[in-house]
Structure formats: C-alpha cells, structure tokens
Amino acid sequence: MLKIGLGVPLYAGLYNEAVASLLSLVEYTVRVLPNCVLYPITTNRKFLPRARFNIVRQARRLGCNFLFWYGEDIICEPDTIIKLIHYGRPVIGGLYLDRRPPYNPCVHKLAGNDTWMAYKLHELEDDMKVDAVGHDLTLFSKEVIEAIEPETYVGVATMEGDDLAFGRWAKKKGIDIYVSTKVTGKHISEKREIITVSNVIDLKEYLKKKSTWVKTK
Asked: How do residues 114-124 score in pLDDT, each as one tens digit?
C-alpha cells in the first residue's frame, strides 16, 4: 500500500478556491492510485519552520512513502501529485509565481556571494536541478522524509524563508532538488473569503465530510 502524506501548514485559513482544488487533487489521486492512502497532516497557527518539522515527523510516524506539501492559498491541477511522483526525484516542486510583483517564479539559486536569486521564467526547464523551490506544491520522497532534522527549516539568523533554509540544508546533505515546469499552480492573490482555522479545527474531518477519499483496509 502506498502512503502519501498531505502536509498543509495552516495559519490564516484555507481559501475557498484552495479547498475546491484540494478536494479535486485528493479525489483524482486515489482514483488513479487505488491502493494508496492519503493522510492529511495539518498544523494550526504555528511558526512555519516548526510547523514544517512537525508535519514531517508525523509523516515519518505514519510510514509515508511520499509527503506532498500544499499551501493554504494555492490552486493546482488534480493530477499534480501523480505527475510529480512519476519524475522519481527526491524533491521536486511544481512551478508557481510569487503572489506579489514582480511575480518571479518561486524557484531560487544561490549566487556567488551566497545570496538567493529567483530564476526568471525563461531560465527554467522541465526536470531541472535547482537550489530551492517553494514548498506549496512540492513532493518529498521517503528518503528525504527520514533525513529531515529539527534545524532543517531554520534559516540563516532566521532571516530566510523556510523553503530557502531547506535548500541550504539539502545542498549540505547532498539532496538534489528539481522543478517541474509541466506541473503548475498559482497563488490566489485577490481578496477572497476564507475558511478560517477556527472554523476548520480538523482539516481531516472537514475533508472526510466533503468527500469519501480516505481509504481503509
């Protein structure tokens, strides 16, 4: 049986469009992979590096073969997880842009002076090795899940984002990161009604009410 963790660190809450996208994603995944179990793993209003590590630790306890990260303000295609699995990479992220101008890709490289620079769209190729990807549409293999440490997501003097901190850690550990230009998503940048964390205390129960995607023995 294939076990896939669905990591969703919640802070503000899920946008309505993100809920619809998430439901389509999980329904499609279990339809194409009938022998898989999807485990939603969430945190509520936690410091993001700590939330990431808590989710990884839970995925480890569950024995997940993969961990897919999904952002609370992201929408994607239903076949996103399936496509990312097929690449067979230890870490691979889908392509999406920053939510604010100049709308650069959430894909970065370390420059010569050890600072981060965002790639331009025209620089990216499918299945390309990069130094960091945003974590809102990213798939980890089991080997990466097992390797992650408590300090993995803590940036240099805490001034880097969690995805960039992970990139530094992965480089140090010899873990390769890739980006897919064929798997895309987008931030919901406009002001939208959201389902707040206080109204969705347990995302797993909410999803179970909306869909029968959770499979048992």
From this structure: 889 999 999 99
**Residue at 128 is within a domain:** yes
- 3-state helix/strand/coil string of the chain: CEEEEEEEEECCEEEHHHHHHHHHHHHHHHHHCCCEEEEEEEEECCCHHHHHHHHHHHHHHHCCCEEEEECCCEEECCCHHHHHHHHCCCEEEEECECCCCCCCECEEEECCCCCEEECCHHHCCCCEEECEECCCEEEEEHHHHHHCCCCCCCCHHHCCCHHHHHHHHHHHHCCCEEEEEEEEEEECCCCCCEEECCCCCCHHHHHHHHCCCCCCC
pTM of the shown model: 0.88
CATH number, residue 122: 3.90.550.40
Q: Give pLDDT tens digits for 125-141.
A: 999 999 999 999 999 99
Domain assignment present for residue 215? The answer is no
Does a structural domain hold residue 217? Answer: no
**Is 115 among the domain residues?**
yes
Between CA 212 and CA 141 the distance in angstroms is 26
Q: Total structural domains in the chain? A: 1
Place of tokens 């331009």: 120
Domain coverage including residue 122: 2-210
